[in-house]
Amino acid sequence: MSKDLWSKISQTIKTGAETLVQETKELTKMGRLKVELMTLENERNRKLQELGRKVYALYKVGAAFPPELAQDFQAVDETEKRIEETNREIEDLKAEDEAREAARLEEEKAKGETSGPKAYCSQCGAELRPTDVFCSQCGTKVAG
């Protein structure tokens, strides 16, 4: 009985650690993408400001648009394209996360882990699964 309990505890810890590693990787990727998106948006804004200054200066003197302005338009277009690609990558990552969470909930439901009233740790308030012997957040032994 004791060996079986330790085996279950070991498996629970291993599963929790694997989940934590996976979620950390996903959060890191999401954070990196969001930083990249902010950098791209700032780059676009700087390019648009410079473009606006040039266009306005030309407008004020009544001059025609020079060829280098076309390069600025292209640079803004390229940045816009990169922003769209990064937004799509973020949306794809969110969809993957949602699909994984739905699959996890289905798996728990199939095991009967989500039925019945929810229980919470008396020490830290974390939600407990019906099969938990110890709280996955703080390690407190589950009553009952």
Short structural description:
The chain has 144 residues and is mainly alpha-helical. It has helices at residues 2-61, 67-111, and strands at 119-120, 127-128.
Structural class determined from secondary elements? mainly alpha
| Widest β-sheet, arrangement of strands | 1-2
Count helical runs: 2
**Helix proportion of residues, in percent?**
over 70%
- How many β-strand stretches? 2
Low-pLDDT runs of 5+ residues are: none
Which geometry do the CA atoms define?
rod-shaped
Number of domains: 2
Termini gap: 17 Å
Description:
- The chain is mainly alpha-helical and 144 residues long.
- It has two helices and two strands.
- The protein has a two-stranded antiparallel sheet with strand order 1-2.
- Strand 1 and strand 2 form a beta hairpin.
- Helix 1 packs antiparallel against helix 2.
What key phrases describe this protein's structure?
144 residues; mainly alpha; 2 domains; 3% strand; rod-shaped
List the helices and strands and how they pair.
Elements: H1 2-61, H2 67-111, E1 119-120, E2 127-128
Antiparallel strand pairs: 1-2
Helix pairs in contact: 1-2
